[in-house]
Design goal:
Blueprint: E1 11-14, H1 25-37, E2 42-44, H2 53-62, E3 71-76, H3 91-105, E4 110-115, H4 124-137, E5 140-146, H5 150-162, E6 170-172, H6 186-193, E7 196-199, H7 226-231, H8 234-249, H9 254-262, E8 268-273, H10 278-285, H11 294-304
Parallel strand pairs: 1-2, 1-8, 2-3, 3-4, 4-5, 5-6, 6-7, 7-8
Helix pairs in contact: 1-10, 4-5, 5-6, 8-11
């Protein structure tokens, strides 16, 4: 992971929109089992996922397991109650939130702790010092940022180095074939400053699968999620149809092609995937180690451009 000695599985499992909410404990446990049995060591969570329930579900699964086998992350920023201080990246909210996450997870420390967005209402120095203090206390091993701009990441690193504190070592942005904004400045900045990159929404909330090639199925996420609806255009569906042909020619599924395409970047440490069934976990994991040749990459670029 970036300029650290930490090793992350290329494919990881995240709890956004699934565990603790739409996916029951039994299925969630099966997904965790499938992930770990196939080499996944990184589980990505956040306090805001199902208002803490995603952390609680994983905490129940984790009981009796060897804690050091896993890289567990959580995040802090989004409101967790109506309390005016129960949000953002103030020292108060960070310190109280990490304790709540540790309690739900049933562990003494987090491997990774992300600032879940940039907080314009809190001085960056206050946030950097609080996160660095958590590392000093041993409650967090590495801290990072999520959906921060390149200049914000640079400033956080510079402040931490000026105070001889612990710098952020990982950024978690959205990145997929339909959203490539990080290629211009985020990836180069992270490479320069020593941050690893772990990306979310690698399948564009399901658009980069075959699920929507013939319309929107009843009950599908696209019937209620504005996140998907922004990407679910006729132009993108035509792109996915062409990409799916390439995937078939390479002996891959469409999701596996999309994941392997992301992992072509050496700066990207891990791709965070979601799953509501263990079969999805197993399919996604098979994208690990897939190397796309130059001809395939050129053909893909022609479609995406």
């Amino acid at each position: 992971m970036g300029r650290t000695g930490l090793k992350l599985s290329e494919i990881s499992l995240g709890g956004w929109l699934t565990f603790g909410g739409k996916v029951g404990d039994e299925t969630a446990f099966a997904c965790f089992d499938a992930a770990v049995e196939n080499g996944v060591n990184f589980i990505d969570l956040a306090d805001a996922y199902a208002r803490g329930n995603a952390e609680s579900v994983f905490g129940r699964w984790l009981k009796g397991k060897k804690r050091s086998d896993f890289v567990i992350s959580s995040k802090v920023y989004w409101p967790m109650s109506d309390n005016i201080n129960d949000r953002g990246l103030s020292r108060k909210h960070i310190m109280e939130s990490v304790e709540a996450s540790l309690k739900r997870l049933g562990t003494d420390y987090l491997d990774l702790y992300f600032c879940h967005r940039y907080d314009k209402g809190t001085p960056l120095e206050e946030t950097v010092r609080a996160m660095s203090d958590l590392v000093q206390q041993g409650k967090v091993l590495y801290w990072g940022t999520s959906v921060w701009e390149a200049d914000q990441i640079k400033d956080a690193v510079d402040i931490s180095q000026r105070w001889l504190g612990y710098q952020p070592y990982v950024e978690q942005p959205c990145y997929n074939m339909l959203d490539r904004h990080i290629e211009e400045s985020i990836i180069p900045t992270c490479a320069e400053k020593g941050l690893g990159i772990v990306v979310w929404s690698p399948l564009a909330q399901g658009v980069l699968t075959t699920k929507y090639l013939n319309g929107i199925p009843e009950g599908a996420r696209a019937t209620y999620s504005h996140w998907i609806q922004e990407d679910l255009t006729e132009e993108n569906i035509e792109r996915v149809k062409k990409l799916n042909v390439i995937a078939g020619d390479l002996g891959l599924t469409m999701p596996q092609l999309a994941l392997a395409w992301i992992l072509r970047h050496p700066e990207i440490s891990s791709v965070i995937t979601g799953a509501s069934r263990p079969e999805q976990v197993e399919e996604n994991i098979r994208a690990s180690g897939v190397k796309l040749d130059e001809d395939a990459l050129a053909e893909i670029e022609g479609i995406l451009a």
